[in-house]
Specification:
mainly alpha, 3 helices, 67% helix, disordered N terminus
Length: 113
């Protein structure tokens, strides 16, 4: 099959794709383009030593462990955030329960009468 000039590996022309609407989308588009370019250089055997070394480091066990640590830290932060929210809810429940018990015992707020 003949390769058409200006057509990317996904089969779409770069000029036919919709321009990104946000800076984040533009950044993601640039990352995809850079990865496609480096992939092509690796396949052609023209990748620089820095490009090759970068992907070799990503494949190392150390990189996998570091990635797992980052994921666990994100989970820990999420759990701490939930725990703080739950603690706040429990505090409100205790305050409401104490107020109800005082009212039941006849020691309610004097301003309420």
């Amino acid at each position: 099959m003949a390769k058409v000039r200006g057509v990317s590996s996904s089969g779409t022309s770069p000029s036919s794709t919709r321009p990104p609407l946000t800076p984040e989308a533009k950044e993601q588009q640039m990352i995809v383009l850079a990865l496609d370019l480096v992939e092509q250089r690796l396949r052609d055997g023209t990748a620089s030593s820095q490009e090759t070394t970068h992907f070799l480091k990503l494949a190392s066990s150390k990189a996998r462990i570091e990635q797992e640590i980052l994921e666990r830290q994100a989970e820990l932060i999420s759990a701490k955030t939930k725990a703080l929210a739950n603690a706040e809810e429990i505090k409100v429940l205790y305050e409401d329960a104490l107020k109800a018990m005082r009212n039941y015992a006849g020691q309610g707020d004097p301003d309420e009468y």
